[in-house]
Structures are given as structure tokens and as C-alpha cells.
Amino acid sequence: MKHDINRREFIRRGGAAALAIGGLSALNGCTGKGKTQETSSSADAGQGEMTYRINPKTGEKVSILGYGCMRWPMIKDNEGKDIIDQEAVNRLIDHALENGINYFDTAPMYLQGQSEEATANALVRHPRESYYLATKMSNFGDFTYKGAMEMYSRSFKRLQTDYIDYYLLHSLGGGGIEGFNRRFVDNGVIDFLLKEREAGRIRNLGFSFHGDKETFLALMDLHEKYHWDFVMIQMNYLDWTHAWGATAEFMYTELEKRGIPVNIMEPLLGGRLSKVPDHIAQRLKERNPQGSVASWAFRFAGSHKGVMTVLSGMTYMEHLQDNLKTFSPLVPLVDEEFAFLEETAGLLASYPTVPCNDCKYCMPCPYGIDIPAILLHYNKCVNEGNISQSQQDENYRKARRIYLVSYDRAVPALRQADHCIGCNQCVEHCPQKINIPRELHKIDRYIEKLKQETL
């Protein structure tokens, strides 16, 4: 977790990323009227039409703001089960399409298998040519060819379509290149998908990645063989140089070299970059009073010209409206703003938060533990200064009360950290490679010390 480039290099590379280079020049931004995007002041954001990027392979205009369909609003059914609020999804997708968003990204595993169908139910009410649909081969637990074919066929049925615009090999990196071979090469799945691309049922084939530099480079070496049409990486101003594996700066640069369009996931780190500590939020607001805290992260991601779309999981209408303001049109960062965010990233990296992005890949826990809620509550208390090191801390009493009371409100008693037995089933599914049992046990020990007042 160290800076691997200095301030001057950060600014140089950030500024270079804002220029069209090599094979990525076709990704230059344009407005809904097809005009090339021009840099303007941040006050101009939200005063016009959505910014688009051009897919250099197909010539398609893709909205720079894409809809990530992993965090749809949920409600309870008559039996108390969590289900997607289809009416809310319909309203969100209608508003997104009306305001220029045309890229929607889902997966078979999102929201316990409900996302593909709910997303399609909203989209099929609109002309198929008015949007681009992305989904994934999420064959994490079943590496068989039969299992992959069943998942592939099921996605087409759930999505109610006869072609998929952007198809991804989901979350490569885990298990290294050997893991990639087991999931896609040894079983013949990649050969099948390449034929599907030739047949036009897959329009663009790529992958999403969470892993180390060595594995990413190995996948880049396979570009000549598989001709990746696009790649999705986790990129934001914190992960640009602060990341557990391959940094965003490293991956973006390697993709840029090869002219491979880049899609961005987790520009807000699961919302963490919109819920920063108060003094950092104030720092961001003072620099741009008209923009939200989240807008800084979105502008950082979109300012790199090799980026085709920036995904955001917009659960509520206010999230969607705020992001539309940021990208309609996108106002790219200038060098001074890249430097400002580098300094901000350094401040954020000093906070001992758990890098949970609330993706819920770890769920459901076989013992009923609400893992994301526990970790997010801890992070919230860290950011708000309500974590104590000892009883001698000046605000110990206040922090103790806030943590214990809010913990019981955020996480039901039977779903709290003390129920973790360390089975490790969650660890292999975490894209951020968090040692989840270790973090849960650490949090549980902290809570017990607060209760017993032995901190």
C-alpha cells in the first residue's frame, strides 16, 4: 500500500491519460450531437447532454456513464424475502435512458441471481437498439463445460435477447493464470465463446479483473490469441496507486498500450469515496462547491480517454440524478485537479478501513452473518472518528456509545460478527481479497472490549 510514483509522475500520467493516444483515439468523448467534447470549467457540468465515447471496433456511441445493475433497490415480499423492487427499477431505467445512459451491466450472480431478470424486465419495454447489454460468465463454483453452457443459455433467457453486446469472463485474477485456464481454457469454454462472437451472438468479448500484476500481464499476452474487445478494471483515484494487487494506473497503462477499451467498475469503491471523513469531504467541497463529493471520483475515472464507460450502481433516483449532472457533459480534470486528488488519496489511505465495496459476493454466509453490514458499519465509525484506541482517548465515552448503539441498529444480533466460526467459505469469493474471518474476529474482539470496558 505504498505510493509507487511520485507527485510529478502522477500528474504527468494523469495528464497524459486525458489525451487520445494510439489505438484509443477513437474513444474521444463526444456529446449526444456527436461533437467532440471540450474541456470546460466544472461549473458547466450538468448543463447539456450526456458525454459519449466511441467503441473503436463497432463505431457505437457508448454513454460514459454506465448503469451497474448490482445494487438495485430491494423490498420484502409477502413471506419476508428480499426481492428486487421492479417498479423502482423500471423508473430508474426509464429515467436513465431518457437522459442518455445506454449501457447496462449485470451478471447471473448479482443480487442472489435476481438482477438479470429484473434488468431485462425494465429494458424490454424499450427498443433493443436503444441500449447495450452486458453480462458475464460467473462460473466460480462449477468449472464444467455443461455448467457454463447452462449459465450462458440461462442469461439469454433471463435477458430476453438473442444477442449480448458486451460479454465478460467474470472476475479473472483469482487463482492466477492457472485459475483462468481451469475456468475457461481446459474445459473448452473460451473456444465456445470465441465462436459465439464470430456468430454475432456476442458482439464484444472481454473480462473483468481483480488480481496481481503477473496475472494481468499474462492475460495481456493472450490478447494476440483472443483479441479482447474490452476489459473492465477497478479504477478510482485511491486505487490508482493504492491497491492490494495490480494498481489501476498499471492496468490502464497496459490496456492503453494495446489499444483495448477500458470499462470502469467501482469508481466509488462501493460508495466509500462518497462517504469520506468530514474533513476530506470539506476539502473536496471547498475546491468545487457546485459538485458532490462523489463527482470527484467519477470525473477522475472519466477523464482518462481510454475509458469507454464508467459503471455506477445507482440504487436511488438521487444517485442517478447526481451522476447525470456529473456526466452531462463530463468535464475532464486538469493537471492541478489530478494533483489535488493524489493528495486526497494519500489522506484516505491513512485511514484503517476495511476495503469492502459492498459487492455481496461473500453472501449468503452459511451461518447467517451479514458480512457487508458489519464491515461497512466499522468503516463508517472509522471515518467519523468513532473508533477508540484506549479508554484514555478524549472522546472514548461518546465513541463507545455510538459504536455499540449503531452496531445493534445496523446488524441484527443473530447476524453479528460473534457468530463467525472461521469456515473461510467467504474468502475465495471476495474480489478485494479481504481475509473476512480475520476482520470479523478483529471487530468482534473490539466490540467485546467496548462492552467489558477493557480497551
Helical percent range?
Answer: 40-55%
Radius of gyration based on Cα positions: 22 Å
Determine the structural class based on helices, strands and strand pairing. alpha/beta
Query: What value does the average pLDDT take?
Result: 89
Largest sheet: 8 strands, parallel, barrel
Which word captures the global form? globular
Provide the low-confidence segments as ranges: 1-25, 31-43
Describe what you observe in this structure.
The chain is an alpha/beta fold and 455 residues long. The chain is 40% helix and 13% strand. The strands form three sheets. The chain has an eight-stranded parallel β-barrel with strand order 3-6-7-8-9-10-11-12, surrounded by six helices. A hairpin with a 5-residue loop joins strand 4 (74-76) and strand 5. The relative contact order is 0.12.
Secondary structure topology:
Elements lengths: L6 H11 L34 E3 L6 E3 L1 E4 L5 E3 L5 E3 L1 H13 L4 E3 L9 H9 L8 E6 L7 H15 L4 E9 L3 H10 L3 H11 L2 E8 L3 H9 L1 H4 L3 E5 L13 H11 L3 E4 L12 H10 L5 H10 L4 E6 L4 H11 L7 H15 L21 H13 L12 H15 L25 H17 L3
Parallel strand pairs: 3-6, 3-12, 6-7, 7-8, 8-9, 9-10, 10-11, 11-12
Antiparallel strand pairs: 1-2, 4-5
Helix pairs in contact: 1-13, 2-3, 7-9, 11-12, 14-15, 14-16
In a few lines, what is going on in this structure?
The protein is of the alpha/beta class. Helix content is 40%, strand content 13%.
Keywords:
alpha/beta, single chain, eight-stranded parallel barrel, two-stranded antiparallel ribbon, 455 residues
